[in-house]
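User: Run a structure prediction on this.
Assistant: Running it now.
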Amino acid sequence: MTVLEFCIGMALARRGSLTAREIAGEVSTWLDKPVRCRMLNGQLKAIAARGWARLEAGTYTLSEAGTEALRGFYSALVRMLDGGRRLLDVAVFMSLIKEFERSGS
């Protein structure tokens, strides 16, 4: 899974079914730079081909396989940030991220 595929999957996991334009908007926010739909075309096709997301009527929806793929990548990301000390708990980390998102930080 590439970083952009992870970002696409997380956008779908957090916000539900989205168009490519809506996904690009979400990814732009996280990367703090403009991301155009066409920049994500390869990744969108790849996640659909792997069965991680479904495309129906111009809207992408995360599949169960996509959720499982994200889970492994997300856990690895938390372990990397933790430096192998196992001090960060994935559930606590997710809660903190959601709180930052709500507060606009």
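The longest strand covers residues 53-56.
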